[in-house]
Design goal:
- The complex is a heterodimer of chains A (about 220) and B (about 270).
- Chain A has about 220 residues and is an all-alpha fold.
- In chain A, about 70% of the residues lie in helices and about 0% in strands.
- Chain A is built from eleven helices and no strands.
- Chain A has helices at about 5-10, 25-30, 35-65, 70-75, 80-100, 105-115, 120-130, 135-160, 165-170, 175-195, 205-215.
- Chain A is globular and about 45 Å long.
- With about 270 residues, chain B is mostly beta strands.
- Chain B has one helix and 19 strands.
- The longest helix of chain B has 14 residues, at about 255-270.
- The chains are: A mainly alpha (about 220), B mainly beta (about 270).
- The interface of A and B includes residues 43, 49, 73, 176 and 198 of A.
Chain lengths: ~220, ~270
Amino acid sequence: MSRAALLVLADGRFPAGGHAHSGGAEAAVAAGRVTDAASLADFCRGRLHTTGLTAAALAAAAALGVDPLELDAAADARTPSAALRTAARKLGRQLMRAARATWPSAELDALAAARPRGAHQPVVLGLTARAAALGPTDAAYCAAYETLSGPATATVRLLSLDPFDATAVLARLAPDVDRIADQATDAARRVLDHGPDALPAASAPLLEISAEAHGGWPVRLFAS
Amino acid sequence: MTAPADLAPVGLATAGVRDIAGVQATARIVAEVDPRRGSTVLPVLAGEGPLAVRRTRGAGAEAQVTLVGAMSGPLGGDHLTVEAEARAGARLRIGSAAATIALPGQAGEPAHYAVRLTVEDGAELHWLPEQLISVHGSDLRVTTHAELAPHARLLLREEQVLGRSDEPPGRLTTRLTLRHAGRVLLDQELACGPGAPGGWDGPAVLGGHRAVGQLVAVRPEFADDPPKPRTLGEYAALTPLAGPAVLVTAVAPDALRLRRTLDEAVRLLR
């Protein structure tokens, strides 16, 4: 593998459209649940250990070569919120465009053809990592880190939070990201023997509930 | 596939008898249509140990069963299973007489509570038990697995209450898996309480709420005409799943307010 390829894929400036999404932070800020760096850290930790773990395992499994359409169906079952399924597919479609231009691959082409409106973003992310000759743990790290970096960056804009404080939140959660990437990779390897049902299905009720409310706002800064 | 929680060794548990290793018991309910009268009958209605089952008065052609706790629990180390099957065309409604209360065991072992529901074509199952209360010091793993035929109907409610009033919760992990026409329609796990992964009580997951619930409705007609997503107040939302089903997710400060929200959702779905 190339470590530099991992940096390219994980770079916040990789043109995959993630900056338009707050990962639920906009709704949590509006509800008064995220008000400062401490509550942002708590929000990020909860998201990482629930939907972050699920996303990281999907990405790792795709990087291992598990059938992406099976993983896409597993992602649907693990994303009960219709608003979040729409967001995940929109992000998947945007990432697919960037990925095919960056690391052309027959597997990416096949998934794009099978899911023209977009596959779930973590599945596309894992397949992109595979196209870039990265491994399942790399894919899991990318997915887990995005779970945090999206809300942290969004909160800087939403609350005018000091960017140094937001970055410190990310740094303090680094050991949690390590654990989640390991767990996700282990789960992805179990999928090879036991099928997608072996994927984690950790969920976060408040993220799901507020995603539906947020989807109905007439004016919002972020798409999700 | 079985959730990892189900793979734990059963130890020395003995059917229907509680010893230090815990009790292992299964209740079985099978409903089918009596071809002569057209109403639903129960060829199998068998409780065991702490799981007693009673046929209670149902409305019209449906059969109604009430789960009655014959012992307290589940306690740590217990392995309890409820299996219910609604065969083609049957109408079965299952409730419970009281809340299920997860209690600590003697050896600090987790308790396991498994619910397996099967609904065949043209059948309808209502699984509407009372709340599950996670008592301080308890550790319970709940798995609910529903297997639905393409033209099956299901109404399922699950409510978890974290601790009795003013008590910190125990450890609780729940996994709800729905398979419809052979494919997974919903797979959701929630872990909370001491020792659960970080952030479980934070602003992304429960945010200090002490009651959390799900209501699932699976109906063939939702395939063409699914209900639109909507909120029910600030802390509950109804969303169509990627199949002929809707899920209502709700959090609330307590069991009473959670039930009010889920009752409202049931009325909306009529």
